[in-house]
Amino acid sequence: MTAPNTTPNTTPNSARNLVAILRGLRPEEAVAVGEALLAEGIDRIEVPLNSPDPLVSIARLAEAFGDRALIGAGTVLTKAEVEAVAGAGGRLIVAPNADPAVIRAAKAAGLTCLPGVFTATECFAALAAGADGLKLFPAFLMGPEGLKALRAVLPAGAQALPVGGVGPADFPAWLAAGASGFGLGSSLYAPGMGAGEVGARARATVAAWDAAQARIEAGAE
Question: Is 46 a catalytic residue?
Fold first, then answer.
Protein backbone atom coordinates (compact mmCIF):
# COMPACT_ATOMS: atom_id res chain seq x y z
CA MET A 1 0.00 0.00 0.00
CA THR A 2 1.22 3.50 -0.82
CA ALA A 3 2.51 5.37 2.22
CA PRO A 4 0.42 8.40 3.29
CA ASN A 5 1.57 11.70 1.81
CA THR A 6 2.11 14.06 4.74
CA THR A 7 4.14 16.77 3.02
CA PRO A 8 1.57 18.44 0.77
CA ASN A 9 2.22 21.23 -1.70
CA THR A 10 -0.65 23.57 -0.84
CA THR A 11 1.25 26.81 -0.29
CA PRO A 12 1.85 28.77 -3.50
CA ASN A 13 2.96 32.12 -2.11
CA SER A 14 1.59 32.83 1.35
CA ALA A 15 1.44 30.97 4.65
CA ARG A 16 -2.35 31.41 4.86
CA ASN A 17 -3.99 28.13 3.95
CA LEU A 18 -7.31 29.64 2.86
CA VAL A 19 -9.06 28.25 -0.21
CA ALA A 20 -11.67 30.50 -1.85
CA ILE A 21 -14.59 28.45 -3.17
CA LEU A 22 -16.16 30.46 -6.01
CA ARG A 23 -19.30 28.45 -6.65
CA GLY A 24 -21.42 30.11 -9.31
CA LEU A 25 -18.58 32.26 -10.67
CA ARG A 26 -19.07 33.38 -14.29
CA PRO A 27 -16.11 33.56 -16.70
CA GLU A 28 -16.58 37.27 -17.34
CA GLU A 29 -16.04 38.09 -13.65
CA ALA A 30 -13.33 35.53 -12.91
CA VAL A 31 -10.25 37.73 -13.34
CA ALA A 32 -11.67 40.67 -11.36
CA VAL A 33 -12.71 38.42 -8.47
CA GLY A 34 -9.38 36.59 -8.55
CA GLU A 35 -7.48 39.87 -8.45
CA ALA A 36 -9.53 41.03 -5.46
CA LEU A 37 -8.72 37.83 -3.56
CA LEU A 38 -5.01 37.93 -4.33
CA ALA A 39 -4.76 41.59 -3.38
CA GLU A 40 -5.90 40.67 0.13
CA GLY A 41 -3.65 37.61 0.51
CA ILE A 42 -5.85 34.68 -0.53
CA ASP A 43 -4.00 32.79 -3.24
CA ARG A 44 -5.81 29.45 -3.42
CA ILE A 45 -8.88 29.51 -5.63
CA GLU A 46 -11.25 26.75 -6.68
CA VAL A 47 -14.12 27.03 -9.14
CA PRO A 48 -16.60 24.19 -8.53
CA LEU A 49 -17.45 22.31 -11.69
CA ASN A 50 -21.17 22.92 -11.19
CA SER A 51 -20.56 26.64 -11.86
CA PRO A 52 -21.35 28.24 -15.25
CA ASP A 53 -18.61 27.34 -17.79
CA PRO A 54 -16.16 26.44 -15.00
CA LEU A 55 -13.30 25.38 -17.26
CA VAL A 56 -13.37 28.76 -18.98
CA SER A 57 -13.17 30.53 -15.62
CA ILE A 58 -10.33 28.25 -14.51
CA ALA A 59 -8.43 28.88 -17.73
CA ARG A 60 -8.79 32.64 -17.36
CA LEU A 61 -7.71 32.55 -13.71
CA ALA A 62 -4.77 30.28 -14.49
CA GLU A 63 -3.62 32.50 -17.33
CA ALA A 64 -3.85 35.64 -15.21
CA PHE A 65 -2.58 34.36 -11.87
CA GLY A 66 -1.14 30.88 -12.32
CA ASP A 67 2.37 32.02 -11.49
CA ARG A 68 1.34 33.34 -8.07
CA ALA A 69 -1.75 31.40 -7.07
CA LEU A 70 -2.98 27.82 -6.85
CA ILE A 71 -5.95 27.69 -9.22
CA GLY A 72 -8.21 24.72 -9.82
CA ALA A 73 -11.60 23.09 -9.50
CA GLY A 74 -13.97 21.84 -6.85
CA THR A 75 -16.69 19.19 -7.02
CA VAL A 76 -14.38 17.02 -9.14
CA LEU A 77 -15.86 13.53 -9.33
CA THR A 78 -14.19 11.65 -12.19
CA LYS A 79 -10.81 11.03 -13.82
CA ALA A 80 -12.11 12.71 -16.98
CA GLU A 81 -12.85 15.86 -15.00
CA VAL A 82 -9.33 15.81 -13.54
CA GLU A 83 -7.95 15.69 -17.07
CA ALA A 84 -10.22 18.54 -18.17
CA VAL A 85 -9.13 20.74 -15.27
CA ALA A 86 -5.46 20.04 -16.01
CA GLY A 87 -6.09 20.88 -19.65
CA ALA A 88 -7.53 24.24 -18.60
CA GLY A 89 -4.39 25.03 -16.64
CA GLY A 90 -5.71 24.14 -13.20
CA ARG A 91 -3.33 22.76 -10.57
CA LEU A 92 -5.78 22.07 -7.72
CA ILE A 93 -8.36 19.29 -7.49
CA VAL A 94 -10.93 19.45 -4.68
CA ALA A 95 -13.68 16.86 -4.27
CA PRO A 96 -16.62 16.34 -1.90
CA ASN A 97 -15.66 12.66 -1.57
CA ALA A 98 -12.56 10.49 -1.40
CA ASP A 99 -12.40 8.47 -4.62
CA PRO A 100 -8.95 6.81 -4.86
CA ALA A 101 -9.16 6.80 -8.67
CA VAL A 102 -9.65 10.56 -8.75
CA ILE A 103 -6.86 11.12 -6.24
CA ARG A 104 -4.45 8.95 -8.20
CA ALA A 105 -5.39 10.67 -11.46
CA ALA A 106 -4.75 14.07 -9.92
CA LYS A 107 -1.36 13.04 -8.59
CA ALA A 108 -0.39 11.35 -11.87
CA ALA A 109 -1.06 14.73 -13.55
CA GLY A 110 1.07 16.55 -10.97
CA LEU A 111 -1.88 18.33 -9.36
CA THR A 112 -2.57 19.12 -5.72
CA CYS A 113 -5.52 17.06 -4.48
CA LEU A 114 -7.81 17.71 -1.51
CA PRO A 115 -10.52 15.02 -1.34
CA GLY A 116 -13.53 15.26 0.94
CA VAL A 117 -13.51 13.08 4.05
CA PHE A 118 -15.46 12.73 7.28
CA THR A 119 -14.40 9.52 9.02
CA ALA A 120 -11.04 8.13 10.08
CA THR A 121 -11.44 5.36 7.48
CA GLU A 122 -11.91 7.92 4.71
CA CYS A 123 -8.98 10.01 5.96
CA PHE A 124 -6.51 7.14 5.91
CA ALA A 125 -7.77 5.80 2.57
CA ALA A 126 -7.37 9.26 1.00
CA LEU A 127 -3.85 9.68 2.37
CA ALA A 128 -2.90 6.19 1.22
CA ALA A 129 -4.08 7.07 -2.30
CA GLY A 130 -1.76 10.09 -2.31
CA ALA A 131 -3.96 12.99 -1.19
CA ASP A 132 -2.07 16.19 -0.39
CA GLY A 133 -4.54 17.12 2.31
CA LEU A 134 -8.00 16.39 3.66
CA LYS A 135 -11.14 18.44 3.07
CA LEU A 136 -13.24 17.87 6.20
CA PHE A 137 -16.78 18.01 4.84
CA PRO A 138 -19.33 18.93 6.00
CA ALA A 139 -17.34 20.54 8.78
CA PHE A 140 -20.33 21.92 10.69
CA LEU A 141 -21.43 18.36 11.43
CA MET A 142 -17.98 17.26 12.60
CA GLY A 143 -17.22 20.30 14.74
CA PRO A 144 -13.83 21.12 16.27
CA GLU A 145 -14.17 18.30 18.78
CA GLY A 146 -14.48 15.82 15.93
CA LEU A 147 -11.28 17.12 14.36
CA LYS A 148 -9.53 16.96 17.72
CA ALA A 149 -10.43 13.27 17.93
CA LEU A 150 -9.14 12.62 14.42
CA ARG A 151 -5.90 14.47 15.14
CA ALA A 152 -5.13 11.91 17.83
CA VAL A 153 -4.71 9.25 15.14
CA LEU A 154 -3.82 11.11 11.91
CA PRO A 155 -0.17 11.51 10.84
CA ALA A 156 1.22 14.66 12.41
CA GLY A 157 1.87 16.37 9.09
CA ALA A 158 -1.49 15.63 7.49
CA GLN A 159 -3.26 18.76 6.28
CA ALA A 160 -6.90 19.06 7.43
CA LEU A 161 -9.10 21.85 6.07
CA PRO A 162 -12.66 22.23 7.41
CA VAL A 163 -15.18 23.11 4.69
CA GLY A 164 -18.91 23.65 4.96
CA GLY A 165 -20.57 25.94 7.48
CA VAL A 166 -17.26 27.45 8.60
CA GLY A 167 -16.48 31.16 8.56
CA PRO A 168 -13.93 33.59 10.02
CA ALA A 169 -15.63 33.66 13.42
CA ASP A 170 -14.96 29.94 13.72
CA PHE A 171 -11.22 30.11 13.02
CA PRO A 172 -9.98 30.16 16.65
CA ALA A 173 -11.84 27.02 17.74
CA TRP A 174 -10.90 25.05 14.62
CA LEU A 175 -7.26 26.10 14.64
CA ALA A 176 -7.01 25.17 18.31
CA ALA A 177 -8.40 21.74 17.40
CA GLY A 178 -5.72 21.23 14.76
CA ALA A 179 -7.09 22.68 11.51
CA SER A 180 -4.43 23.45 8.90
CA GLY A 181 -6.57 25.89 6.94
CA PHE A 182 -10.09 26.39 5.61
CA GLY A 183 -12.17 26.20 2.47
CA LEU A 184 -14.49 29.20 2.38
CA GLY A 185 -17.52 29.59 0.16
CA SER A 186 -20.42 31.92 0.89
CA SER A 187 -18.49 33.86 3.53
CA LEU A 188 -16.22 35.05 0.69
CA TYR A 189 -18.27 34.87 -2.48
CA ALA A 190 -21.84 34.43 -3.68
CA PRO A 191 -23.04 34.49 -7.30
CA GLY A 192 -23.37 38.03 -8.59
CA MET A 193 -21.17 39.55 -5.89
CA GLY A 194 -18.88 42.30 -7.16
CA ALA A 195 -15.11 42.25 -6.87
CA GLY A 196 -15.18 45.11 -4.37
CA GLU A 197 -17.33 43.20 -1.90
CA VAL A 198 -15.27 40.05 -2.42
CA GLY A 199 -12.14 42.05 -1.64
CA ALA A 200 -13.67 43.48 1.53
CA ARG A 201 -14.72 40.02 2.70
CA ALA A 202 -11.29 38.63 1.87
CA ARG A 203 -9.64 41.42 3.87
CA ALA A 204 -11.77 40.63 6.92
CA THR A 205 -11.12 36.90 6.50
CA VAL A 206 -7.36 37.34 6.36
CA ALA A 207 -7.47 39.62 9.40
CA ALA A 208 -9.44 36.96 11.31
CA TRP A 209 -6.92 34.28 10.28
CA ASP A 210 -3.95 36.39 11.36
CA ALA A 211 -5.57 37.28 14.68
CA ALA A 212 -6.45 33.66 15.43
CA GLN A 213 -2.93 32.51 14.57
CA ALA A 214 -1.43 35.23 16.77
CA ARG A 215 -3.55 34.15 19.73
CA ILE A 216 -2.55 30.53 19.30
CA GLU A 217 1.15 31.43 19.04
CA ALA A 218 0.89 33.65 22.12
CA GLY A 219 -0.79 30.88 24.08
CA ALA A 220 1.90 28.37 23.05
CA GLU A 221 4.76 30.50 24.27
Answer: yes
